[in-house]
Amino acid sequence: MHRNRLRAAALLTAAAAATSGLAACSLGGTTDRSASPGRTVVVATHDSWAMSKSVLRRFTKQTGYTVKIEPNGDVGQLTNKLVLTKGAPIADMTYGIDNTFASRAVDQGVLVDYSPPGQAASAASYALPDPTAARQLTPVDYGDVCVNVDDVWFRKHGRTPPRTLADLTRPAYKGLFVTPGATTSSPGLAFLLATVARYGDHWPAYWKRLMANGTKITSGWDGAYEVDFTAGGGNGDRPIVLSYDSSPPYTIPKGGHRPTTSALLDTCFRQVEYAGVLKGANDPAGAKAFVRFMTERPFQEALPENMYVFPVDSKATLPAAWARWAKVPAHPFSVPPAEIAAKRDVWLRTWSDLTSR
Amino acid sequence: MTSRPTGRRGGTATLVALSALPLLVLGVFFVLPVAGMVGRGFFPGGRLDLTGVLDVLGRPRVHRVLWFTLWSSGVATLVTVVLGLPVTFVLHRLRLPGRRVLRAFVLMPFVMPTVVVGVAFRTLLASSGPLGMLHLDGTPAAIVAAMVFFNLAVVVRTVGALWEGLDRRREEAAAVLGASPAQVFRTVTLPALMPGIVAAASVVFLFCATSFGVVLTLGGLRYATVETEIYLLTTQLLDLRAAAALSVLQLLVVSVLLYAAQRSRSGREQALGRAAARDAARPPRRRDAGLLAVTAVVLALVAAPIVALVVRSLHVDGSWSLGNYRSLGAVGSGDAALVPVTAALANSWRVAVDATLLAMLLGVLVALAVSRRPRAHAVRRAVGLLDAVFMLPLGVSAVTLGFGFLITLDRPPLDLRGSVLLVPIAQALVALPLVVRTLAPALRSVDPRQRQAAATLGASPARVLLTVDLPLMWRPLLAATGFAFAVSLGEFGATSFLARPDRPTLPVLIYQLISRPDPSSFGTALAASVVLGLLTVAVMGLVERLRLGSVGAF
After folding, report:
1. Which long-range contacts (CB under 8 A, 24 or more apart) does B292-301 make?
2. Under an 8 A CB cutoff, do B462 and A48 touch?
């Protein structure tokens, strides 16, 4: 009796195995066709990556390499994945590590030295201060995280918009500010660093005042801008939001000529994004070629429209709306990357304790 | 001996044969990665170091986080069950016009991406929104409400599959004997449904306890759960030791709960008189008014965030427009190198087919194994254990699992990091508990004497399966298939780690779109979410039709 039962079970298992084989076919079959001939550079990057196909085709034409993009979550996730897979890297090169995470990648020995020749003169000012880091990470673009205000709202209510970080804690702006959190959003982290740069060791006191003044924290930039911000399309009720210096051009109304919002240039923290070749890359030559390509004009000029950041090459042409309306702060806040690496965890824990229960 | 169909040796051998493949899959794609990640935390520098782990578990913050996780998920589970049962009754036992559409509609939230629903919820609850006067934004109540919203489908479908196969004559008999409707429900219906309710509740609890986007988006970072802590520790602080400690804590808590659920269930299962061949639903009567009203309110609450989402997706620059929907096919053909939404939808579809096949296959094997009633005590224990083991993937952090994949499946013979199969396999593991939870209570409710009778009359085990179990199992099987498909379409946590960038699934693409700082990507993400929801409703509607047809054939 039980032998029969056993046979039925075995039959089922065999059917199981056969079906899973089938399932394998339906997807497995399609991979091979999509695999491109020739050599491929695999790029580990963050989820905000976007680049026009024509620019990437140009790279393929120049070098024979096809580019394969692998998004890996936000900058923190990207960096930590690279650290965890050291020795068996998930890609040939990486793009998107910024000045807030650079030290971790460099200290953990994830990268090899490579600086492409012929970089723009302006690029030097974005290089990392640490000599090893500067040899391994090549600056590609930058963007400033700044407090933005809804000018229309302030005009309508007959009030003066804030100008500085200190203004945000004044009773006049109580309950008007919304920002993404430092632990879940990279602009949120940049804003925390701006306050660290401005207030030094006293930043927790500033955040206490900020929270006491009715500041709202969301998990991501989208929640802050698209739900709570008055000019974000969600009909929110907070006219002050943390966003980018490149945000205002996107608020030029249909048929209008000027943005309805502006960035407060005294509240900005600069994020610089870097590219580097990974240690143990399958194809180091291809990786180097793509790092170099990223510093060249065609890629640099495509950055604003695709990734909403400024090219490090100051001679690259900007889109018209950007050139006219995206104002870049002259003296953004900054914190030395080595200090960020050493203290980030403590800062984030302190920040969490200040803002959560 | 021959009169004991599941004697000690036969029972064990069959059990092993049935569970071999599912266990292998679970071992490679769940145990190995999680162990790898936990190992990194427990063995920093290659040596076992428990002091650090114990230190983490002693932190007051960890206790606070654990407590919040337990009570918020507990309350959410309770509310989901209490609200879900009337809806289940109305949608599965009453012959209402449009009930099939409504059943499919209930499943819609289940597949909606949390990031987008989070925004929709907040659009309603924010102080400027239509429900702003409730002051719920950023409160635990909002978190719990969203958890209920997402998981209502689990109760309605798991319990519904059992309920609609329940023979009404038992209840009628009780009523004839003078029992009030409440008494009938308490003494006849509820005990029969209990295994399904406990099964659904444990799945809902696991989904709530590991939900992540909901807690962060709606709690405004003010509340932390074990899951959000693991995310923070792993992806931002790279504190693997603390993350490992919390992952183990999560596993322990989940195991204890599963054990308790298993215990409370095993005493209550009963063979049920079943009405497979005819529709057990009846036309609504006047005394159903209360339940109908409750159902209407619950469905309206479920609809509210969806309506908010649809309305918002139809706005561009503050005025009504179809622009967001027009751009669904266009993303990627222009400048941005993202995949068009239509292509992601096609990927999702293909992945879902594979994942569903795999989940059903493994699910049927596991359900057959765990619904056995072996006499030997040790084997019965093993069955109970097996039952719980396949629930574990729901109770473990997607972050731990995802990072675990990266560090353990990276060298031959298991160099699978680039494999297209990882996504369907991971989704199948997530869907598996739901499939088992839908099938096993139904299988267990098949009267074993029916099988024994068939066997005595000379039917082979395969024939018993075909002629006794299968006709009774059609509805649960179809319900499970639809469910697995929906899980796959909506899965984001594990998929986001494993999906190949050149072929993202729709939820992954929606997430990428929503994190881009321009309004048009945001609009496209909203439109894509609506499409994903509608697709699910359409598929479920079709499955519902299919299911009536096939029942008629038997």
Report:
1. B292/B90, B292/B94, B294/B83, B294/B86, B294/B87, B295/B86, B295/B87, B295/B90, B295/B91, B298/B83, B298/B86, B298/B87, B298/B152, B299/B87, B299/B102, B299/B105, B299/B106, B301/B149
2. no
- 231-250 in B: which are within 8 Å (CB) of A? 232, 234-239
What integer best gives the mean pLDDT of chain B?
83
The structural domain count of chain B equals 1
Q: Which of A22, A80, A219 to mutate to test the interface with B (most CBs of B within 10 A)?
A: A219
* B220, B224, B406 ranked by CB distance to A84: nearest: B406
Q: Which residue of B has its CA nearest to A13?
A: B18
State the DSSP H helix or E strand holding residue B316, giving kind and residue range, or none if neither.
strand B315-316
B350 vs B333: CA distance, rounded Å:
22
Give the range of the structural domain holding residue B318, as residue numbers without chain letter: 15-272+288-553
Instruction: Give the tens place of pLDDT for each residue, A206-261.
Output: 999 999 999 999 988 888 998 899 998 777 889 999 999 989 988 888 788 889 99
| pTM (two decimals) | 0.83
B53: domain CATH number is 1.10.3720.10
Distance from chain centroid for Cα B487: 7
Asked if residue A245 is part of any domain, the answer here is yes
A181 contacts on B by Cβ (under 8 Å): 220-221
- Is residue B289 predicted with pLDDT exceeding 50? yes
How far apart are the C-alpha atoms of A353 and A351, rounded to whole Å? 5
Stretch among B168-177, B239-248, B466-475 having the lowest mean pLDDT: B466-475
Confidence at B273, pLDDT banded by 50, 70, 90: low
Q: Is residue A284 part of a domain?
A: yes
Q: Is residue B5 part of a domain?
A: no
Q: Which tokens belong to B500? A: 């190949």
Asked whether the ipTM of the predicted complex exceeds the cut of 0.95, the reply is no
Structure tokens at A60: 């393929």
**CATH number of the domain bearing residue A343:** 3.40.190.10
User: Residues A227, A287: one domain?
Assistant: no
Note whether A62 and A106 are same-domain residues: yes
Do A209 and A338 sit in the same domain of this protein?
yes
Whether residue B424 and residue A23 make contact (CB cut-off 8 A), yes or no, is yes
| Percent over 90 (pLDDT), chain B | 18
**pLDDT, tens digit, for every residue of A253-265?**
878 888 999 999 9
Measured distance CA(A63)–CA(B302) in Å, rounded? 54
Chain-chain contact of A184 with B417 (C-beta, under 8 angstroms): no
**Residues of A in Cβ contact (< 8 Å) with B133:** none
CB contact under 8 A, B515 and A221: yes
Q: What is the pLDDT of residue B8?
A: 43
β-sheet bridge partners, residue A217 = A179
Domain span at residue A85 reads 39-143+270-325
Q: Which amino acid, residue B460?
A: S
> Does A18 map to a domain?
no
Q: Tell me, yes or no, whether A174 and A256 share the same domain.
A: yes
**List of chain A residues whose C-beta atoms are within 8 Å of the C-beta of residue B523:** 233
Q: Is there a contact between B118 and A90 if contact means CB atoms under 8 Å apart?
A: no
Closest residue of A to B339, CA-based? A50
Asked if residue A282 is part of any domain, the answer here is yes
Instruction: Give the mean pLDDT of B433-449.
Output: 82
Residue of chain B whose alpha carbon sits nearest to that of A356 = B222
* Angstrom distance (rounded) from CA B201 to CA B203: 5
> What share of chain A in percent tops pLDDT 90?
64
A201 lies in the same domain as A336? yes
DSSP state, B126? Answer: S
Q: How many domains is chain A partitioned into structurally?
A: 2
Provide the pLDDT for residue A261. Answer: 95
Going B447 to B484 to B481 to B483, the CA torsion angle's sign is positive
Residue scoring higher pLDDT (B450 or A100) = A100
The answer to whether residue B334 sits within a structural domain is: yes
A129 and A247 co-located in one domain: no
| Contact flag B126-A236 (C-beta cutoff 8 Å) | yes
Q: Is B133 on the interface with A (CB under 8 A)?
A: no
Task: Tell whether A201 and A294 lie within a shared domain.
Answer: no
